[in-house]
Target: 4-hydroxythreonine-4-phosphate dehydrogenase
Amino acid sequence: MKKVAISIGDLNGIGIELALRCHSQVRKLAEPLYLIDREMLEQAAELLGLEIPEDFVLESPGAEPFTIRPGVVDAAAGSYSFASFKAAVELCTEGHADAVCTLPIHKKAWELAGIPYKGHTDALRDFFGREAIMMLGCPQMYVGLYTEHIPLKEVPEAMNEERLTRFLLDFQRETGAEEIAVLGLNPHAGDHGVLGDEERIIEAAIDNANRIIQNPKSKIQNRPFEGPLVPDTAFTPAMRRRFHYFVAMYHDQGLIPLKALHFDESINVSLNLPILRTSVDHGTAFDIAYKRAELNTKSYLNAVRYIIDRTS
Ligand SMILES: NC(=O)c1ccc[n+]([C@@H]2O[C@H](COP(=O)([O-])OP(=O)(O)OC[C@H]3O[C@@H](n4cnc5c(N)ncnc54)[C@H](O)[C@@H]3O)[C@@H](O)[C@H]2O)c1
Ligand SMILES: N[C@H](C(=O)O)[C@H](O)COP(=O)(O)O
Model:
């Protein structure tokens, strides 16, 4: 059975409840190693009124214990969740785990703790010195994000032909997709320059990537990239029947349609890295943490299943 290092996420949020409630199902798929100290686990389990399963295997993240405050954004929880994530990655790079699955962290809590990253993907980029790609989705529809955790006003200046060409090639190689819809940036994909002209950069990158892929040495002989597509019609039912892989130019362009259609079952995958990392597609859900609310567990279980499918 594959060993999956599970970072525990922000302990003021719903991650630990998911870990405890789903343990027996996860255990049928893999050997989970949970990056949490017994003291913190007992505290959370007591607040949740849940038993700790006997075969719940722990590894210490080596972080300061703290008092859990359900639904509160705080530095201690941010610090702990980052240590848990970092230790999970280390287990993997040192060969003690086959992959990492991350429970959700809170970005403001990381900032309050002085963690210099916006999220897991950003941290992985730095740990490995590689252009990690953020992709979310499910078999019906995966979305790769060319830019992700930057303010919207910085998106136009991040448009760059060489960088986008590399992104497209990496995305294609990592997913193996043979048809990829690439979205424009502006309304109506610029409408021939009437509403903006970043599409020229996108067009050039698509041409470059299609040309490079058509190199006779490549296994793929078609032109996998199509676009720049008009963003407001890129996700119509007909387009989603045709394409299962999309590249969005910014976070919400891709994640609004995905989460509107598939929030329950989607996952987050970090591509283009020496390790496999998956995650849930939702956040810390502070509004329902420790409230015995009905949790959706599909995203978490699918994130573990994806690891098993890819590592077997
Ligand atoms: N993988 C990650 O670490 C990850 C992913 C997304 C968001 N985040 C972070 O989480 C924090 C909170 O984000 P947010 O409030 O925008 O989004 P959120 O996903 O935490 O919550 C949005 C809504 O969905 C509900 N929800 C989320 N997950 C649920 C589940 N499993 N079952 C039932 N209901 C669920 C919440 O109760 C809330 O009403 C932010 O800091 C965000 O950046 C982290
Ligand atoms: N953009 C992700 C989402 O909306 O689900 C989320 O913020 C997680 O990002 P990291 O994988 O970088 O933590």
